[in-house]
Amino acid sequence: MTCQSSDAVESDAPSDPERRRVASAVKELENAGWYWGALTATEAKEVLRDASEGTFLVRDSSQRDYLFTISAVTSAGPTNLRVRFDGAKFKLDSVLLVRPKLKQFDSVVHLVEHYVQLSRSAARARSAEAPNGTVPLLLTRPAYLAVPPLQHLSRVAINRRTRRVRDLPLPDRLKDYLSDYLYDI
Fold it and tell me: From the CA atom positions of the chain, what is the Rg in Å?
């Protein structure tokens, strides 16, 4: 990340819009319940040790150049995917050739939701073998930091059925709560 100061000197400090974007991303992740914060790769592997393929969590990256990492269980065992924050957008890290082709998102939760939806589609149409002997990455089930409250699970169930919560015959306070986390994860 770079930004211009008043002296037009390049800096590694994030701009105010970037700071707000990151703060908003952290708030959304905390609402999700599957953000584990400052968990190390070894600790993430332990959390996911007995989990089924497709189970994932998001944690702070231990690499200085990245903010977040998705730790997920594949058919070959746990793996880690770095999340890039570039141009005030989030995307998965990849080899240089593929990087421009990857979708970018306003938040990490949007990014994860996208890949969860792709994984659900792929799981339905999945063949036994991935192309070129690669290991397919599926994100299908979050590993929650704690048992999610019934309110949150209800919110996710409602948001799975409709994106138009403002049209529901509910009190405004409940609509606000539902709108605070509009994801299907």
Answer: 18
d(CA 12, CA 117) in angstroms, rounded, equals: 34
Residue 3 confidence (pLDDT): 38
Same domain, 121 and 47: yes
Nearest to 85 by CA among 58, 112, 70, 106: 106
DSSP 166: G
Identify whether the C-beta of residue 60 lies closer than 8 Å to the C-beta of residue 39: yes
- φ, ψ for residue 20, nearest 5 deg: -65, -40
Q: Say what the pLDDT of residue 29 is.
A: 93
Q: What is the pLDDT of residue 126?
A: 56
Residues 135 and 157 in one domain: no
Token pair 């015959």 in the structure block, residue: 169
Confidence of residue 116 (pLDDT cuts 50, 70, 90): very high
